[in-house]
Amino acid sequence: MTEVAPEQTDTPNGSGNATLEPPMEDEVSVVVGPPDPADAEQARARAAAAQVKGRINVEDEVVEKIAGLAAIDVPGVADLGGDLERAAEAVRDRIGLGARRGDQGVRAKIENKQVGIDVTIVIEYGHVVMEVAKAVKTNVAVSVNRMLGLRVVEVNVTVDDVAMPGPGPSLEKRPEEDEDEL
User: Which of 86, 115, 153, 167 is the most exposed place for a label (fewest CB within 10 A)?
Assistant: First the structure.
């Protein structure tokens, strides 16, 4: 940390203490503290990392998951994927077969540090489709670029369906319906 301090002079004031006189207009002393060891350690680590040889590969699935999470984060997006993908996910969920996949409805292709992404979404009823789709394009491109450092050359958004408000239809019968049938 750099601090500007007034110049200190040893002028006795009768009590043996030094007094501080304000600096002249031209005089400014700069006091520089000792270097922070954490900063020096980080600089050494960065220098060592820059010298290490090797490659970093990012799979398409990583881009798809990040893009899917960025798309679902946009207000007005109810779900990801087309009809078949959502139906398969519903079956997986109903039988308890694994966790929900974050890349449902998202396809990405990486070539030469550039990526093209296709996203299929379901819009919540009441939202303006074009505004939500544009927000999805922007959020996906920014998130992928920021998190992975890849240049996003295109984001294609397909609006597959509109989710109606309220609870979804249930495939299970209600107890009242069973009593009425008797």
Answer: 167
